[in-house]
């Protein structure tokens, strides 16, 4: 019961962020790309949050930034979910040889730390917003395969699947009709935890400069751009950093909660 | 009991050591300086690499045949005591000093000059800048132990300017031979007031005073260096530069951001030197071979839509003047075209309408035949280009275009983007003190002709200006004509003239730069106590 | 051990193929930079073996790799191994210091959160959770800003600038260690072994703590292998934030500049080190926990 308020706060925060992302054009007030006033104006001089180093309204950039950051992480998580689930299903239901091959390949990929694997993909594809989505998405696939495969194997062991097999059901049918629906809950909680990693990964890759167009108001990129102005306008870095951290915290909280709920069930 | 013995022995030893240290005569304090560099070049051999950054330490490691007075622009004796130019302008004979030797003890003579030029021109060595600076040089003749002639196939007015720069500094042939083009950059040997000690890439370069230096050219105020050791440390991240100065990790640092420079200079602890850098301004080349920038009206519209005063105010804090043409006003002011570039977004919109690009009221985008105007703006990472590009993008989007910016982190990727043709505007500029700089950018076969513009009359003007006459007046007139044409055709969007903001600790005295602006005369530096 | 080698080999192959297939012709970039004429490009292509079928290139690459030859940087034309070795000491120092700090902090936080039943314990567990959720970049910037203000106000270098980077790295990496220690401690506190120790009369204090801690250690040690992974990514960001030279910065600039040989070499190095740390931590865990020895 003591923990409940923290959980509720996290949910509230996430709802706020998602709402901000959806309603950004209406809430922002200014264009995030065009200079609205003189650069580096303080909060008092240009409410609500002052201007950045090029004179653009900071609040507008943060609002639109919610879109860019959330979208990148959500799409990346989708990539991980779809690719990872498909490969894990293939691995469990598809026979021994396929299983060894997929497992072997994903173990090999796991030998490369996640962020570095994503950076490798950026190296191959060249820096851009799309590259970050794909890199973060595919970068998490090996880990996802490992975890979801365990899940599927457990379900495979259960009796009703044996029965289905005895009745002549082929691997595809088993996969779609039996494995997926029964694993759905836990897959979702897995996806939520991965979303936190994807969010951290996407913002970190933008921070390192791999997002291509510097005018895009993505929170990680803004964290980087504000670094040169810590002396006179620390809010340029601190605000996006705070937003990123709070979002990751909230998603982590919810991911853990979901994981606890589904393992008990 | 046991505890006391454990403490007694070590403390006696420590005390003894301290006493010994105190009794040794204290060494005379050596004058040392840390100079901050802002770019880590891919290589630092001046004969082979093109970076201006390498010239900051290396200008004082080498001497050149001639030197140029920063005030008058006149060429004065360096390693050459005097020289003669043949009437047809194709033979330069240099009479060299006979009292010069390299840091490794070998003698400097005419053979050394030949060895250097051959090393520079050897196609296997892939000289990125120095070879081009020699122009139509075809032969080097050693006429005597201290007399050497450079033979050209055609007159080449910029030759003396080239020979006055570090890229054609004289290196020890023995060292060149011993180390070869790959390793020489780590073991450089010249005749200059400082010896090259070591280079650790991405980390530091160390120089020490050359005690036997006795042939200082007239542009140096001192005959001998006052600072014994200078270490060059890299600070590539702009945000670390002011902190480096404040924490005394560096005594001198260039390319300081305008805001930081203003803040530091307002204290007594630091001095600000604003040094004009002659050459091309920060600019973007329009791709004249790609739609829609192949249309002159579109190029003119895109140029007039940009509020360059605002860019200069926002990004450079007023420390840089708005550019007036393809060359900087500080050094080339006399030959710049007189017509001013204006900020006229209304005219720009009109021009686009005339060119057939009209605003679609549904989404506010400019379209022609149903196609939206999509522009690719490619910018390098240096010189605040990304920030400038973002403001240009905002101005172009007000016109109704859709703009995508791509930032290229090195010259390699920049050149690759250009080679692929995937740009409507691309940023690049070089520095230099001779207007012949324009040739490789605007001649139809120039290596850096990134606008893709080909016009034989422009070609002729650029070639004639450096290869038919040595008269400065005649050359200036030709260059003015050429630049009028360049601006009429809207081949470039010039943004601002460069000035380097150098901040030095107030203890630093005598900080002076060559005409090129980037390169400090280390021999004249001193530290007050 | 064999599994480790297999994994390492597989990682190397994965890196090789994904870069080659997705990236394209490295010589073309030299060509477009004007560093080579078309004829030179052809001969360079031949001498680098790029005109051979991909599989043959792969085996040659493996052969060179075993000999320690990682190819030549496209940007500086220097051997990749030379470039990497130059920067290795910087990053190794940063990583070592960061790891030590992480272990220290992780131990303290983990112990505090499991052992102390008061507000301090709860604070410790919250801090541990925070450490995993806070992006390294933001943490670094916060500390940079905080210390800079402290420095300028106080005119003292209370914390040397060189210690800031390992500090950030340590704080960011402490979370998982704290968590493992926490859960390991909780488990062992419930165990009969611990109950027996208390029954023997060992009072709450350092000795009892050691009894509780010992069974939890093997799990913590094997976590260190995973920490190595975290450290790699952490050094990349930390070196960027604090502008320290090192392998992390090298990787970022190699990727931005399209210098594939260097990027490839670094990722392979990371993979090899990661695999090695796995093997090492398995060994240490076996030494520490006799139960594992019997099973293994």
Query: How would you describe the shape of chain B?
Result: globular
Major sheet summary line of chain B: 7 strands, mixed
Helix content of chain A: over 70%
Mean pLDDT of chain A: 85
The major pleated sheet of chain A works out as: none
Rounded average pLDDT of chain B: 90
Output the radius of gyration of chain A: 22 Å
Helix percent band of chain B: 25-40%
Uncertain spans of chain B, ≥5 residues at pLDDT below 50? 1-8, 19-25
In the sheet with the most strands of chain B, the strands line up as 8-9-10-1-11-21-12
Q: How far do the termini of chain B sit from each other? A: 52 Å
Defining traits:
heterotrimer; A: 265 residues; mainly alpha; C: mainly alpha; 2 domains; 0% strand; elongated
Please explain how this structure is put together.
By secondary structure, chain A is an all-alpha fold. Chain A has 10 helices and no strands. The longest helix of chain A is centred in the last third of the chain and has 37 residues. Chain A is elongated, with a radius of gyration of 22 Å. By secondary structure, chain B is α+β, with helices and mostly antiparallel strands. In chain B, the strands form 6 sheets. In chain B, strands 8-9-10-1-11-21-12 form a 7-stranded mixed β-sheet. In chain B, helix 9 packs antiparallel against helix 12 and helix 16 packs antiparallel against helix 17. Chain B starts with a helix and ends with a strand. In chain C, 81% of the residues lie in helices and 0% in strands. Chain C has 14 helices and no strands. The longest helix of chain C is centred in the N-terminal third of the chain and has 36 residues. At the B-C interface, helix 14 of B face helix 2, helix 5, helix 7 and helix 12 of C.
Topology, please?
The complex is a heterotrimer of chains A (about 260), B (about 525) and C (about 300).
Chain A: H1 4-27, H2 58-93, H3 96-110, H4 114-125, H5 129-139, H6 141-157, H7 159-166, H8 171-207, H9 219-225, H10 235-264
Helix pairs in contact in A: 1-2, 1-10, 2-3, 2-5, 2-6, 2-8, 3-6, 4-5, 5-8, 6-8, 8-9, 8-10, 9-10
Chain B: H1 2-23, E1 32-37, H2 55-58, E2 66-68, E3 75-77, E4 80-85, E5 91-96, H3 110-121, H4 130-133, E6 137-144, E7 147-152, H5 159-163, H6 173-183, E8 194-200, E9 204-209, E10 229-234, H7 241-246, E11 252-253, H8 258-265, E12 270-276, E13 282-286, H9 296-304, H10 308-316, H11 329-332, H12 345-354, E14 358-359, E15 366-368, E16 371-372, E17 374-380, H13 385-399, E18 402-408, H14 411-420, E19 425-427, H15 439-442, H16 456-467, H17 472-488, E20 492-496, E21 499-505, E22 508-509, E23 526-527
Parallel strand pairs in B: 1-10, 1-11, 17-18, 17-19
Antiparallel strand pairs in B: 2-3, 4-5, 5-7, 6-7, 8-9, 9-10, 11-21, 12-21, 13-19, 13-20, 14-15, 15-16, 22-23
Chain C: H1 2-23, H2 26-32, H3 38-47, H4 54-66, H5 80-115, H6 119-133, H7 136-154, H8 161-190, H9 192-199, H10 206-213, H11 217-241, H12 247-257, H13 260-288, H14 290-295
Helix pairs in contact in C: 1-13, 2-3, 5-6, 5-8, 5-11, 5-13, 6-8, 7-8, 7-11, 8-11, 11-12, 11-13, 12-13
């Amino acid at each position: 019961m003591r923990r409940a308020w923290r959980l509720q706060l996290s949910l509230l925060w996430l709802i706020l962020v998602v709402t901000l992302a959806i309603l950004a054009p209406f809430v922002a007030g200014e264009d995030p790309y065009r200079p609205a006033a003189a650069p580096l104006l303080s909060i008092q001089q240009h409410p609500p949050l002052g201007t950045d180093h090029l004179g653009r309204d900071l609040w507008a950039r943060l609002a639109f930034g919610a879109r860019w950051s959330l979208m990148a992480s959500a799409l990346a998580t989708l990539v991980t979910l779809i690719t990872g689930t498909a490969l894990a299903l293939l691995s469990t239901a598809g026979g021994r040889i396929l299983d060894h091959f997929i497992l072997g390949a994903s173990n090999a990929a796991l030998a490369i730390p996640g962020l570095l694997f994503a950076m490798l993909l950026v190296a191959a594809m060249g820096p851009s917003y799309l590259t970050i989505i794909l890199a973060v998405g595919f970068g998490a696939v090996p880990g996802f395969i490992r975890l979801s495969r365990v899940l599927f194997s457990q379900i495979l062991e259960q009796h009703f699947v044996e029965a289905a097999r005895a009745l002549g059901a082929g691997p595809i049918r088993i996969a779609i009709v039996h494995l997926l629906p029964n694993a759905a809950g836990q897959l979702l909680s897995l996806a939520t935890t991965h979303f936190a990693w994807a969010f951290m990964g996407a913002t970190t890759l933008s921070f390192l400069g791999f997002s291509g167009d510097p005018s895009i108001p993505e929170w990680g990129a803004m964290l980087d751009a504000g670094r040169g102005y810590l002396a006179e306008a620390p809010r340029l870095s601190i605000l996006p950093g705070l937003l990123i951290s709070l979002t990751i915290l909230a998603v982590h909280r919810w991911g853990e909660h979901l994981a606890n709920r589904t393992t008990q069930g | 009991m046991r505890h006391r013995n454990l403490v007694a022995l070590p403390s006696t030893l420590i005390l003894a050591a301290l006493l010994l240290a105190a009794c040794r005569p204290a060494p005379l304090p050596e004058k040392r300086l840390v100079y901050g560099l802002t770019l880590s070049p891919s290589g630092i051999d001046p004969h082979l690499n093109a970076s201006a950054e390498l010239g900051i330490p290396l200008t004082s490691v080498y001497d050149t045949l001639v030197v140029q007075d920063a005030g008058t622009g006149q060429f004065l004796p360096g390693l050459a005591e005097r020289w003669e130019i043949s009437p047809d302008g194709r033979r330069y004979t240099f009479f060299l000093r006979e009292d010069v030797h390299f840091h490794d003890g070998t003698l400097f003579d005419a053979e050394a000059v030949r060895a250097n030029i051959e090393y520079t021109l050897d196609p296997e060595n892939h000289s990125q800048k120095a070879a081009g600076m020699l122009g139509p040089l075809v032969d080097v003749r050693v006429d005597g132990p201290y007399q050497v002639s450079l033979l050209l196939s055609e007159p080449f007015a910029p030759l003396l300017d080239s020979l006055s720069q570090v890229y054609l500094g004289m290196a020890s042939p023995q060292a060149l031979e011993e180390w070869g083009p790959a390793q020489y950059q780590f073991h450089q040997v010249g005749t200059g007031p400082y010896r090259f000690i070591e280079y650790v890439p991405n980390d530091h370069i160390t120089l020490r005073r050359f005690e036997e230096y006795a042939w200082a050219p007239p542009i140096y105020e001192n005959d001998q260096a006052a600072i014994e050791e200078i270490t060059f440390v890299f600070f590539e991240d702009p945000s670390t530069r002011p902190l480096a100065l404040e924490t005394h990790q560096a005594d001198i640092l260039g390319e300081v951001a305008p805001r930081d420079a203003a803040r530091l200079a307002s204290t007594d602890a630091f001095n600000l030197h604003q040094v004009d850098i002659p050459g091309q301004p920060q600019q973007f080349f329009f791709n004249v071979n790609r739609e829609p920038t192949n249309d002159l009206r579109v190029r003119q519209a895109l140029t007039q839509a940009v509020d360059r005063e605002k860019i200069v105010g926002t990004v450079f804090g007023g420390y840089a003047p708005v550019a007036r043409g393809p060359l900087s006003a500080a050094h080339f002011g006399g030959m710049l075209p007189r017509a001013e570039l204006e900020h006229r977004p209304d005219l720009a919109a009109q021009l686009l309408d005339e060119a057939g690009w009209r605003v679609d009221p549904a989404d506010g985008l400019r379209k022609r035949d149903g196609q939206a105007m999509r522009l690719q703006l490619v910018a390098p990472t240096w010189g605040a280009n990304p920030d400038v590009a973002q403001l240009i993008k905002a101005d172009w989007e007000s016109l109704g275009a859709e703009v995508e910016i791509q930032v290229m982190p090195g010259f390699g990727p920049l050149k690759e983007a250009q080679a692929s043709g995937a740009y409507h505007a691309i940023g690049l500029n070089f520095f230099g003190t001779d207007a012949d700089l324009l040739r490789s950018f605007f001649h139809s076969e120039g290596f850096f002709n990134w606008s893709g513009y080909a016009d034989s009359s422009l070609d002729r003007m650029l070639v004639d200006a450096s290869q038919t006459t040595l008269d400065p007046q005649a050359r200036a007139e030709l260059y003015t004509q050429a630049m009028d044409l360049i601006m009429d055709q809207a081949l470039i969007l010039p943004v601002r003239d460069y000035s380097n903001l150098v901040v030095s600790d107030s203890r630093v005295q005598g900080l002076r730069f060559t005409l090129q602006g980037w390169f400090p005369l280390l021999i004249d530096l001193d530290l007050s106590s | 051990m064999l599994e480790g080698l297999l994994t390492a080999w597989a990682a190397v192959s994965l890196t090789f193929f994904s870069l080659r297939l997705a990236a394209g012709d490295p010589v073309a970039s030299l060509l477009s930079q004007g560093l080579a004429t078309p004829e030179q490009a052809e001969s360079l292509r031949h001498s680098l073996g790029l005109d051979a079928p991909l599989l043959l290139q792969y085996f040659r690459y493996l052969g060179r790799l075993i000999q320690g030859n990682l190819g030549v940087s496209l940007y500086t034309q220097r051997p990749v191994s030379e470039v990497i070795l130059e920067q290795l000491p910087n990053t190794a120092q940063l990583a070592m210091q960061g790891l030590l700090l992480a272990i220290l902090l992780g131990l303290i936080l983990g112990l505090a959160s499991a052992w102390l039943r008061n507000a301090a314990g709860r604070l410790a567990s919250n801090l541990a959770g925070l450490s995993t959720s806070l992006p390294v970049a933001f943490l670094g910037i916060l500390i940079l800003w905080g210390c800079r203000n402290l420095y300028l106000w106080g005119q003292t270098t209370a914390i040397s600038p060189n210690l800031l980077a390992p500090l950030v790295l340590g704080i960011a990496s402490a979370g998982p260690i704290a968590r493992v220690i926490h859960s390991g401690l909780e488990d062992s506190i419930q165990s009969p072994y611990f109950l027996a120790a208390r029954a023997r009369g060992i009072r709450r204090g350092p000795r009892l703590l050691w009894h509780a801690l010992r069974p939890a250690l093997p799990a913590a040690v094997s976590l260190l292998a995973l920490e190595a992974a975290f450290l790699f990514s952490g050094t990349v960001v930390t070196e960027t934030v604090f502008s320290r030279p090192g392998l992390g910065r090298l990787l970022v600039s190699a990727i931005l500049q399209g210098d594939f040989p260097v990027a490839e070499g670094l990722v392979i190095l990371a993979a090899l080190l990661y695999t090695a740390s796995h093997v090492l931590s398995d060994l240490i865990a076996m030494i520490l926990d006799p139960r594992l020895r019997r099973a293994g």
